[in-house]
Fold these 4 entries.
Entry 1:
Amino acid sequence: MIKECMSSQEMQQQLELPLLTFNSLYNILREEKRMKSLQKLPEGFYEAFEKFIDNKKQEIKKLKNDEENKEKLMKDKNIYINSLKIYDELLNLRCLKIANVAIKNGVFDEEVLSKDNILSRENDFFSEVQKAMKKIKIKL
């Protein structure tokens, strides 16, 4: 019945979100650290993370008053907290790499480094850094 209330576009978008788990999030961070360039992530990565975090919040909320599941509650809280830490570290790494691409491309006025792996949600950040770089360059 709930799905009937969703538009077909919302249902399609929900179907396209990559499955995200704590382990997959950790592996994405590990790979981002390992690679010098920006790794390719699925376009719906940020939306999938938001959904994953929302689901964890819901699970924690359900378990709060359940005395029999104290252990599961603690486990879910740890996953929630550590997922946010991993996300912050991943976001910082990606922002540094995106800024590096934008600066280098701005310095040389051409695409020296590929911006293929920049997600649409990250594109505004890329554009702003590149624009700022060009303003600095013009003033010199």
Entry 2:
Amino acid sequence: MKKFFLLTFLFTSPVLAGTYTVTTTTAQDTRAERQRVRVNKATCASVSLPASCTQAQARAVTPGLDIYSSVQDMVDRTLLRDWLNNLKSADTSDDAIQAQAAWVAMNDTQKNAVCALLSLPNGCEAWSR
């Protein structure tokens, strides 16, 4: 039983990486569904397809277009994706600040070791001071 559970966990863990629940009212659900329909119609119209086009049809004209099958699908692929992409930018900025601070705090031997890892000569300026 434990082996089966472990194998199941290993094979399904990426799917279970993050599950979030947002509680909405019936009125909010209605508005979200209306927005999904509006967005899908506009996307279909943007590539001269019928208002009820499918994602496959839209992507056949322009790869990368999104047609949402449900409000959950729209939330996942727009709101959540965009939000997480913005977080990635913030993380990258934070990492650069921390890397620069660490660089300044290093002695020359440590800096030269980093330079070597980056295939740069000793005395390189991996991060500006």
Entry 3:
Amino acid sequence: MPAMTELAQVGKRQEIADQIFNIQPEATPMLSLLKKSGMPKQMLSTWQSEVYPDIASTGVVDGTPVTTYERIDRYLLQGYAHYFRRPWAVTTLANLTEIAGAGRNEAGHQLKAAMLLIKRMIEQQILSGDDTQADSGSVGYEMRGMGSWLDDSAQAVLPVDAAIRPATANIYTGALASYTENSFRTQLESGYTEKKSALNLVGVVDKDLKAIVDDWTNVYPVASSTSQPRTVYRVEGNETYSNIVSQIKFSTGEASLMLSEFIDRDTSDGTADTIPGNGYFIDPKMWDLCYMSKPANTNLPPDGSGRRGYIDAVAIARCFNPLGQLKVDCAS
């Protein structure tokens, strides 16, 4: 009688690992970085900013009266909050079926995924170049993204006053391959002139810009007489090769670097920017994130189709004063 072999067995159960794997579901560094402030009461938010002017310091002639008077002007900044929503649904039978990693709670798994995606949506909008806009009946409210806040030209909607827009020299728009230490130094010096003190920034950059910065201190096999190496390839211990620049320091300021894959994406469909090399070097003290409504789930009434609901949130990222902050938006 032939022996039963594994290949000839009938009725074998399918072996599926009891986990569901996702890549970086919570990678939203900007949501963690920005301080959280009070709850706005209207979709249109308004706040104030001011700039200390350059002033004369000549001596006053004794015995002369005060004949002219001056004041520090304030500027209004405005922006609309943004309504985010992510629906989810699971049919009745799909939720009753036991799934590896989810058990008999597919609805719970889909709800959790929707909550994580809402966080990504908010992160993506903050790191976009989108201008703010009001609800038109066909297009919804949008918050202004960092790329628009740090423009040197007037925005189309609720424009930032020219007195507090960053200088053109704060913004790099050249080719990614040409972005050098001197490029960043020039930006820092411009921001230093605006702030009148050394800058302390956080650089949120894409992987392509970070790779360029990582190579700034490398030695390549051939060094010309006009480009002498400053350091060598960095080696930690005997076995680890490290090629990371996490902090940049110059006399006029410094920046710590963090990566995000959500910079300058197409917010209409979430696809990545086709031209790599984007980053915002921000002063975190000049920003906050306000929730009119924090991300929360609403279950919809049963209609026989299964469990369903949506996650929604209303938020606005506010820049108190764009001066002294930098932007890299590389050209092709």
Entry 4:
Amino acid sequence: MGKDRDSRHPILPESWTWEIVGLSIQREPSDAAEPYLDLTVKRAGVTRRLRFWSPQDLVVEEGGPTMTSGLEILDVRSRGLDRLGVRVSDFEGSPGAVRFWARAVEEIGT
């Protein structure tokens, strides 16, 4: 299956309507956990924090921080990629767009 067949991940419905307001990477957590990337998003006064486990190939496009109008979180588990289940991208190519792969994602609070 190619990218055009990946389904949207259910963790953040209508992800393109959320603004990225925070990005934090922990490469070597002190508790010996795997690396993670925390993404904080906001929409209409609601803030959500998502944790992406074992992020890889992080790219932040020049021009940020700005409203990213094409944020998408894709479920790529059907591709059968080794230890990769999530793809974060930007279908609009917005300035400041964030792109990366991760093993998994979970919500960690507001």
